[in-house]
Design goal:
The chain is an alpha/beta fold. The protein is built from 17 helices and 13 strands.
C-alpha cells in the first residue's frame, strides 16, 4: 500500500562514496568495508556519543582507533575498562561482521560519514555542552559514528527539512490531539516529522504524518529490527515502508534505559527544531528539548492546562529558558523553522465587529448614545466631547451604517438585528 499520497515521488536510491582512509601506522589506505566494520565495532565496544572514541576516530581514523582500543591503549581508564569488559564477551570485529550480515538480511543499511546520504548537521553535536552536566549521558554527547537505516529514502535528504515532535508516553487526549495535528500539518507541507516511536505523543506525531501521506522518521534506542515498544510493531513496519527507521545500535541491540537519553541528542541535532507537546516534571522529552537549546536549534513548547501533570515539564522549560518559544499550533511552528519573512503566523485576533471599523470620533459619538432613549444633537455633542459639526457628520455616518436611527426629534441606537428564526 502506498502511503505517500498523490503526486509524491518515490524515494531515490541512496548513494555511497568510494575510497579508503589511511591508517595511523602507515599501512596505506584501507577498504570501505574495513572502515564500516571498524565503526560498527567501535559503537559496540563503547556506547555512542563517547567523546574520546569520537576524537580518536577524527584523529587517526576508525580502523586505527579500533586497533588502539583493542590493544588496551584507550586514553581514559573508564574507557579501557569498558572496552575490556565488552571485548571479553566476544571478538569485536566478528560481532560487527555478524551485525552487518544480519542488517543485510533484514534490508537495513549502514550509513557512515563517508556516504553521500550522511546528515551533516549531526556534526554540531561536537559543540554541545549542557550546563551543570554530570551524568555520562549528558556529558558524552559527541556525534554518531554510524547509523543503521531501514527504509528507502536517503537519510540526509530526509532529515534536511525536518521537525521533531516529542512528548510524554502517558499522553492526555489533549496532547495526542495536538501531536496528531502537528504531525499531519507538517507532513502535509512537505516537512519530515521525526520522533522516537514511543507510545503517546511520539506515536501520535508519526501517525499524523502517515495519515497526511508524508515522511516520518523514528529514531530508535535499540536495533532497527527490534520494535520497542512491541505494541507499536505495526507502526514501525509502516514507517519503514514510507519513511525511515534509524538507530546507532546494531540490529538486535536491546532498548536499555540510558540509550533513550543517548538517542535523544540525535533527534535534537538532526532536525531544524523540536516541539515539546507534553512532558511530566522528570521526562526524557524535556532532555531532548534541552539538547536542542544547547545546539541553538529552535526549541518550542506547546502549553497545556496548569492542572495537568503532563504539562509541568514544558511549563518549567518556558519559565527557565527565555530562548524556548511558546507555540500553539502549526502556524507558530512553521514561523519558527520556516523561511524568514515568509512562513509567518497570522496574529491572533478576535472576530471583527462593525464598530471596530469606526474612527475614534465616530466611536465616541456612538458611545455617547444611551441604550434606551434618544438624544438631541447638542446633548450628543456634549456627551461625546466634540463640536456640533463633528457630531452631525459622525451621526450621519452612523446612520448610513445602520448603527443609529432618528427618533423623537433626536438620535438613538439602532435596535439589534433580528437573528435567524
Amino acid at each position: 500500500m502506498d502511503h505517500r499520497g498523490p503526486g509524491r515521488a518515490g524515494p531515490p536510491r541512496p548513494r555511497g562514496r568510494r575510497g579508503g582512509h589511511p591508517t595511523a601506522d602507515g599501512r596505506g589506505p584501507v577498504s570501505t568495508e574495513e572502515t564500516k566494520l571498524a565503526r560498527v565495532a567501535l559503537t559496540w565496544l563503547a556506547e555512542p556519543g563517547t567523546r574520546s572514541v569520537y576524537a580518536l576516530v577524527q584523529r587517526i581514523g576508525p580502523v586505527a582507533a579500533l586497533d588502539l582500543l583493542l590493544s588496551g591503549g584507550a586514553p581514559e581508564q573508564a574507557l579501557r575498562s569498558a572496552v575490556a569488559a565488552r571485548a571479553a564477551a566476544g571478538d569485536a570485529r566478528a560481532v560487527a561482521a555478524e551485525a552487518l550480515a544480519r542488517g543485510e538480511r533484514l534490508g537495513a543499511r549502514l550509513v557512515t560519514p563517508d556516504d553521500d546520504e550522511w546528515p551533516a548537521q549531526v556534526r554540531d553535536l561536537r559543540r554541545l555542552a549542557l550546563p551543570g552536566a554530570t551524568r555520562r549521558v549528558d556529558v558524552e554527547t559527541d556525534p554518531p559514528l554510524c547509523f543503521w537505516v531501514r527504509g528507502a529514502w536517503p537519510l540526509g535528504e530526509t532529515l534536511a527539512h525536518s521537525v521533531a515532535v516529542v512528548g510524554a508516553r502517558a499522553a492526555t487526549p489533549y496532547g495526542s490531539h495536538v501531536a496528531t495535528e502537528l504531525g499531519y500539518g507538517l507532513a502535509d507541507r512537505e516537512w519530515t516529522v521525526v520522533s522516537g516511536g514511543a507510545f503517546g505523543i511520539d506515536s501520535a506525531a508519526h501517525r499524523g504524518a502517515l495519515t497526511a501521506g508524508g515522511r516520518t522518521v523514528a529514531v530508535l534506542a535499540c536495533g532497527v529490527d527490534r520494535p520497542y515498544p512491541m505494541g507499536n510493531a505495526a507502526l514501525f513496519d509502516r514507517i519503514a515502508e514510507t519513511g525511515l527507521l534509524v538507530s546507532e545500535w546494531m540490529p538486535g541491540a536491546e532498548p536499555l534505559r540510558p540509550r533513550f537519553l543517548i538517542r535523544n541528542r540525535v533527534i535534537a541535532a538532526a532536525t531544524r527544531g523540536t516541539v515539546l507537546v507534553e512532558a511530566a516534571a522528570r521526562s526524557g522529552a524535556t532532555q531532548t528539548l534541552n539538547r536542542a537549546l544547547g545546539l541553538r536549534r529552535h526549541a518550542m513548547v506547546v502549553p497545556g492546562p496548569v492542572t495537568s501533570a503532563m504539562s509541568v515539564g514544558g511549563h518549567e522549560v518556558l519559565r527557565e529558558r527565555p530562548d524556548a518559544r511558546l507555540v500553539t499550533g502549526l502556524a507558530h511552528v512553521l514561523e519558527e523553522v520556516g523561511r524568514i519573512g515568509y512562513d509567518l503566523a497570522p496574529p491572533a485576533r478576535a472576530p471583527e465587529r462593525p464598530r471596530d471599523r469606526l474612527d475614534e470620533e465616530a466611536a465616541q459619538v456612538l458611545e455617547a448614545l444611551p441604550r434606551r432613549r434618544a438624544l438631541d444633537l447638542e446633548s450628543v455633542a456634549a456627551r461625546a466631547g466634540v463640536d456640533l459639526r463633528t457630531a452631525m457628520r459622525k451621526l450621519s455616518l452612523l446612520e448610513e451604517l445602520t448603527m443609529v436611527v432618528r427618533r423623537d426629534g433626536g438620535y438613538a441606537l439602532a435596535p439589534p438585528a433580528a437573528g435567524p428564526t
